[in-house]
Predict the 3D structure of the following.
Amino acid sequence: MATTVAKKKKTLRKAPPSGKGLTFEKVWAMMQESDKRQAERLKETERFLRENALQQKERADQLDKQLSKLGNRFGEMVEYMVKPNLIAKFHVLGFDFEKVYMDASIKDKTNNIFTEVDITLENGDKIMLVEVKSKPNNEDILEHIKRIEKVRFHANLRGEKRKYLGAVAGMVFKESEKQFALKNGFFVIEPSGETFLITAPEGEYSPREW
């Protein structure tokens, strides 16, 4: 039995200690290799982010150019097609406007009232204020309400008694935005074939007057 114990002790003494063969230099080299791989992954990630950011910027620049061209074409359409025919189109709807002009503005420093109107139609009784957008959204429609309220307030200061109405013109109208405009009492002006169509709020929605 003593012999067996001695053999076991001898066997234990021969077992290599944990970590045998790992020197400081080897551990340091392993750490350096790990840091190198991490740095390479970081550089690859940074390169990917730079390339992705560049692609996004190029797409954004291209979109801006397209929107700019679209806005210019829509401005030309309003100037040469919509404006000259607005009086006739509204006449069909029962409005006899006598004048139409573009880009009216109010700059009243005394009363702190500043706003601009894209197209204005008027006669002895009513004034129609038209907001023009290439692709109107609900925020544009709400903003036009605020615009007309400013104009109405400024008109009251001058003793102007005529009623104000509103319209929104757009090259592209989503059905939801169109219905939102009609719901708020606005006339909707949009392309139709080679000309344009004016849709009046009707039924439960009537033209709103300010």
